[in-house]
Amino acid sequence: MELDIYIVSLKNSARRGLCEAIVNDPPPAPKNLSPHFAIFDAIDKHSAYFATDLPHSTLIQHSYAKEWLNESDWYQDIWGRELFPEELGCYASHYMLWLECIKQNKPLVVLEDDFDLQSNFYESLLDCLESPFDFVRLYGNFWKAQPEKAKIANLDGAQIVPTNPKTETLFKGHFMLSSYEVDSTSAYYLTPRAAKAFASFSLHFVEPVDQFLNRVHLHQIPSLTYIPLSVRFNPHHLTSSVFTPENSSLRESTHKKARLRRLSRLFVSKAHDWRRQRYYRHFLKRFQALDSL
Predict the structure, then answer these.
(1) Tell me: the pLDDT tens digits for 55-69?
(2) How many whole angstroms from its chain centre is CA 169?
(3) DSSP 247
(4) Phi and psi based region of residue 26 (left: phi greater than 0; alpha: psi -120 to 50; beta: remaining)
């Protein structure tokens, strides 16, 4: 089985060398998988997509304006704020890869450039290709889970363990559906069906792209996570290309506002939690027969 794997990388990033090394000399793959690694030049705030002096409007001009932010659940919740240019560039990069997936009409994998492939990486890709799922995170951030209720999250996705079906359920042995949100766009598998849904509901970029992917009620694509995680971070992750010294003051002010919003936006948060639980039960019911097939 052939599978394209795109590495999202800024041209001038210190991470670029490791990405090129993987493309030029990828890890040996099993005989039944033919992976093709390629670099996708990430979109940043210096690119033409952000330009304001062109004779035509650009992607970012079409996609982002402050007055559209109220469309976002994330913006209305505790951590909501304006998006950083770096976040817009990240969203635009993923958006362009969704369009590429639609164009090719076949599944692909997206990696951000601070990845570290684990020993089960190719196994996870084969499992994804043979599964009925359209969107699967190969890495996930579990900070929103309650450790005492979420056993897999408590182990940082490192092991397959018996789960509490009220919060986590495994399908086909490895694919976790959770009642809590799993964040990150660091590594994921998607099909053209998922790509079409994501692109269709991205007329406006109104939240960080990983938060958009969790808006299951909007695009109707359930978010699953492969366990054990088949991608982790390399040391370059410690230097973020999104959270920079230039936007640190805005981040600090957001953290201060979040403490106050816990009360003022409590009802909004509770409503979002209730809806998330409802969709978890909905997809749980849809997928419950999978393990008997």
Answers:
(1) 778 999 999 999 999
(2) 19
(3) G
(4) beta
